[in-house]
């Protein structure tokens, strides 16, 4: 008789964790769509290239701080040592969903407090040039999305973890594979981000600051991520790293 309440509590916990994972994912999707509008200067009330509201130096300091907050959160919570510490306080199946949620909230803060800075670096008025750059911008987002599904979209965003927990199954690391774009570059996801961040017919100072800082962050994050992948997959990933370029297809010197 004393065991029944405990069984119900465990069952309820699994349902709550699963719902938490779904909510975290939905928030991510909303932020993902918002990011496209933010960088493309459509729909959203304040975009990356909106009119400046405060002095340039103050705006620059705020924007660098916002990007720094995202970079620290995104990298720190992805490290294995942090995960080991963090899962002492939360259910382990919630760890990835929490990472996704916190990353989404960090981006939300960035979009909310972002300070446009004015100033035009380049402005392409030619219709053909604008179409090409906007097409490459769109291609970047498509590459990002496709890359996540090639490596297992649902594991990457925590849904697989909470689903397995709901079913009472243990989580297992995915088998290392190199499907599609991963045969040509090790990080097609980041290639997509580069297109999304840099391909614009109108580059303002604010947009340039955003693109430069995020590019530097990505190049650093790749090094940290690959160290983790080597720990997980060992010689398999080492061989892959030797054979496939990091970001630029067919250029061995960029491995």
UniProtKB/TrEMBL annotation:
Subcellular location: Membrane
Positions of transmembrane segments: 12-36, 56-76, 97-115, 127-151, 205-224
Function: Catalyzes the methylation of methanethiol (MeSH) to yield dimethylsulphide (DMS).
EC number(s) recorded for this UniProt protein: 2.1.1.334
Entry GO CC: membrane
Protein name: methanethiol S-methyltransferase
Keywords: Membrane, Methyltransferase, S-adenosyl-L-methionine, Transferase, Transmembrane, Transmembrane helix
Family statement drawn from the similarity comment of this UniProt entry: Belongs to the nurim family.
GO terms, molecular function: protein C-terminal S-isoprenylcysteine carboxyl O-methyltransferase activity
Topology within the bilayer: Multi-pass membrane protein
InterPro entries assigned: ICMT_MeTrfase (IPR007269), MddA (IPR054700), Nurim-like (IPR033580)
Reaction(s) catalysed (UniProt annotation): methanethiol + S-adenosyl-L-methionine = dimethyl sulfide + S-adenosyl-L-homocysteine + H(+)
């Amino acid at each position: 008789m004393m065991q029944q309440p405990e069984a119900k509590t465990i069952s309820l916990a699994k349902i709550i964790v699963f719902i938490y994972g779904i909510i975290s994912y939905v928030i991510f999707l909303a932020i993902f769509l918002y990011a496209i509008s933010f960088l493309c200067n459509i729909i959203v009330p304040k975009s990356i290239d909106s009119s400046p509201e405060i002095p340039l130096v103050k705006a620059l300091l705020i924007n660098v701080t916002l990007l720094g907050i995202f970079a620290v959160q995104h990298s720190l919570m992805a490290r294995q040592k942090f995960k080991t510490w963090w899962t002492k306080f939360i259910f382990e199946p919630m760890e990835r969903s929490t990472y996704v949620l916190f990353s989404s909230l960090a981006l939300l803060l960035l979009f909310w407090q972002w300070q446009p800075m004015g100033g035009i670096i380049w402005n392409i008025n030619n219709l053909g040039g604008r179409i090409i750059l906007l097409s490459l911008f769109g291609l970047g987002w498509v590459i990002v999305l496709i890359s996540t599904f090639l490596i297992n979209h649902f594991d990457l965003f925590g849904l697989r973890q909470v689903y397995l927990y709901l079913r009472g199954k243990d989580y297992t690391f995915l088998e290392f594979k190199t499907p599609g774009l991963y045969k040509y570059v090790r990080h097609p996801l980041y290639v997509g981000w580069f297109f999304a961040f840099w391909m614009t017919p109108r580059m303002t100072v604010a947009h340039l600051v955003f693109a430069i800082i995020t590019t530097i962050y990505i190049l650093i994050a790749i090094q940290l991520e690959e160290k983790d992948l080597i720990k997980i997959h060992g010689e398999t990933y080492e061989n892959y790293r030797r054979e496939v370029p990091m970001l630029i297809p067919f250029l061995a010197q960029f491995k």
